[in-house]
Amino acid sequence: MQAGYMSPKEVAALWGVDDQTVLRLIRTGKLTGFKIGRLWRVSPDALRAYEEGNSRKALPSLNKRRIVTRIT
User: Fold this and answer.
1) 2-61 belongs to which CATH class?
2) Which pTM does this prediction carry?
């Protein structure tokens, strides 16, 4: 990989989340990414900026799954 750019799958493995979560962050503009052809890439600077901006939250509020309880 050139210049340390990471794929969403690699970022997901680093953060311990699903790669679709990383793609959603890119699509919503919360994480800066760019496309090369059909492939998304994230720069180390963008990762650092995102992590520093969310240092008080769990990254990126990823490990919180919605639990739905049915009350009958």
Assistant:
1) mainly alpha
2) 0.68
